[in-house]
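[Backbone geometry]
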Amino acid sequence: MESQAKYALVGATVIIFSVFLIIAVLWLSNAGDEKDMRKFGIYFQNQSLSGLQIDSVVTVKGIKVGSVSSFEISEQNIEQVKVIIELQKEAPVREDTRAVIKRNLLTGLAWVELIGSTQASPELTQVHPGEDEPIIPEGETELEQLAQSVPHLLENFDMLVERMRTFFSEDNKTHLSQILANLSSFTTSLNDNSETLAKSLERFSVLADKLADFSEELEGITASLDKNLNDVSGELKVTVKEIGSAAKTVETETKELGKSVRSNIEVITLETSNISSSLADLTQSVSRTMESFENPGDLLSKPSPEALGPGEHLER
């Protein structure tokens, strides 16, 4: 009896120790996971969250990067549902990242897909006032984008139908019938005049041959003319060269003649200046002589002013 009680006590102790050990391992693993996880918030307003559950996966390009931890209707706006997600530390969440709801059509289960992230965009870390974590904006699903494009497609389709109606109006039908009738008449006339057309084509072929022969003759004349022009051009070059040499000779002789004329002019000018000076001296001498001959008596009786001594003077 006592041995059975001891076995029961040992078994209970082992079971309790095992339970505590499992709890400790789970707690430590959860604590480690929480350290490596980041929380983000998403406000969904335009998309239905049907099929979304706690622990639903969060994916990026189909790869699981986290899970949904909680969701509730927003207290600030009842039209929005706030979803809290926990992502791995290395999950790429950028400022241009958007969140959408994806859904399996067979099972109806939904999950959160992060789209639109680019390498150039900075990492999302800003926490707005009144929030406990960064907020990822809501994106647009492919169905929503398609729904937005449907009105434009319908408008374009209406325009196409209206243009088709205009094109196939009664007036256009009449014009089209006339064009087809004229085309049929033209083809009939062309068929009737096929022999005449063949003769015209034959004549045109003969004319083309004559034009080819004339073109060859014209090429020969052009070549001969080019040769003659080249000969005349050579003779003109020689003549121009000779004229240039003669012009240089005339220019040299003109310069020499100019130098000789300038030298002779300078000599003549110098001689003329000397003659003018001599004539001036001669004129002054004659003038003085003439003044002496104005009173011949004085010239005979009176001494010249230069012959008077100190204190002497001429009497009148």
